[in-house]
Amino acid sequence: MSADRVVLVTGGNRGIGRAIAERFVRDGYRVAVTARSGEGPEGTLTVRADVTDAAAVDAAFTEVEQKLGPIEILVANAGITKDTLLMRMSEDDFDSVVSTNLGGSFRVVKRASKGMLRARFGRIVLISSVVGLYGSAGQVNYAASKSALVGFARSLTRELGARGITTNVVAPGFIETDMTAELPEDTQKQYKASIPAGRFATADEVAGVVTWLASDDAAYISGAVIPVDGGLGMGH
After folding, report:
1. Staple partner for 101: which of 57, 121, 139, 145, CB 3.0–4.6 Å?
2. What pTM was estimated for this model as a whole?
3. What pLDDT digit, counting tens, does each position of 210-220 carry?
């Protein structure tokens, strides 16, 4: 049965990553999360890893493999923002965001692909953002790192598609998290006015799409970009 598979969610200690890990646990999967600090949800194995460090990623994978078994489903979710206008953006503001969001996905996918190739089965889900395709002032670094995941997923689909491995991108829009809750009410109203659905998503609505992509029902879907944005980024 597919639900007994081993899942690793990077950045699974908070926000969308946590909701994804919780959903996999609820559906009966064996779930591990990486976190730089804090713990994953109940029922998960938490391993320490900074996705910018290949050696740390390798050690985290080895620990999960020893305790749970080979990783069959990978959700590359760990990400950071360092928002500022281009003219004020430092080299570090750009490099650190790209190294975490894009480089981190590269490191964890490369490490996971070894076991997936042996098993001739794998589900890779990259968590992007509506901003990656829609654009956002003050987020040149973040948007570039998130749109790059599309080319990554499509190239990987061409490389690994014949081996029973799918790679897809989920692009969430505005989600109800601690971050959006802190926005001034006027700003929240403004954002909601631009979303056809008229509301923010719950993190669980994103998690449902991710778990579906990992399921047998989605075995013939690869290289797709699935927006979970209430229609905000339509046509992108």
Report:
1. 145
2. 0.96
3. 999 999 999 99
Is 42 part of any domain?
yes
What's the confidence (pLDDT) of residue 177? 82
In a domain, 209, yes or no: yes
Q: Is residue 193 a part of any domain in this protein?
A: no
The residues assigned a catalytic role are 142
Count up the domains in the chain and report the number: 1
Q: What is the CATH number of the domain that holds 50?
A: 3.40.50.720
Task: Tell me the DSSP string of the chain.
Answer: -GGG-EEEEETTTSHHHHHHHHHHHHTT-EEEEEESSS---TTEEEEE--TT-HHHHHHHHHHHHHHT-S--EEEE---------GGG--HHHHHHHHIIIIIHHHHHHHHHHHHHHHHT-EEEEEE--HHHHH--TT-HHHHHHHHHHHHHHHHHHHHHGGGTEEEEEEEE-SB-SHHHHTS-HHHHHHHHHHSTTSSPBPHHHHHHHHHHHHSGGGTT--S-EEEESTTTTTT-
